[in-house]
Amino acid sequence: MFDIDIYASGLAIALTLAVVLWAVSLPTRKLVFVDALWPILVLAMALSYVHASPQPADRSYLVLFLVTVWATRLSVFLVSRNRWLPEDHRYRAIRDGGPAGDSGFAERSLYMVFGLQAILAWIISLPLLGAALGGPPLGWLDGLAVVCWLIGLLVEAVSDQQLTVFRAHAANQHRVLDRGLWRWSRHPNLFGEACLWWGYGLLALAAGAWWGLLGPALHTLLLARVSGIPRMESDITKRRPDYADYIRRTNAFIPGPPRRPVPTA
Fold it and tell me: pTM of this prediction?
């Protein structure tokens, strides 16, 4: 059922879109909006998979609808959030690093930011391909997939809103948000993101494309162990001293009851 030609076309679309957006970013030499590229890449590939599917079915249009809702919400949120925030320190490091200094920033940003995002989005898009290719009629597993997706979207949207409201108050600049969903997880938005991608994975599984589960598995690994939580928490205790205690009493990823604070001597 796996179609290498359709999958390869997704890579071509992702890389083309990444290069176009990279070129648009060159005059400003800023990458403040690059995070919003991720959902755009995923949506573009979902559209291409459904369009190229030889026999698109109800599941094909269901996954396209779910991806469109998710991508629209996340892109709008990231653009509106990042317009008021300074450029991420990761991107400043890319600009300042390297032997060529700032003169080599354009080349480095092409392959270290835009190109890398395109390739990762392509690999993780496997469940979208599996679901887009159709398969048997919709069943109970598709219903479970939609429930998982809805839970993930709700958790992600609510936690994003709670953090936005918290950051809107200047008094909270160096404080830690430990209320609402953030009381149960240090990164509930990332947990929600993982949940909705497992929803896509279940849709692929319902279509008979078991290999689609590799996408959410890799995405969850990246969020929890590689480019998500480790990157975000690498230096956060320097900016928010109370975060060390927050780490001791709060789960990093999967929500759970807060642990009792560790008594100090």
Answer: 0.91
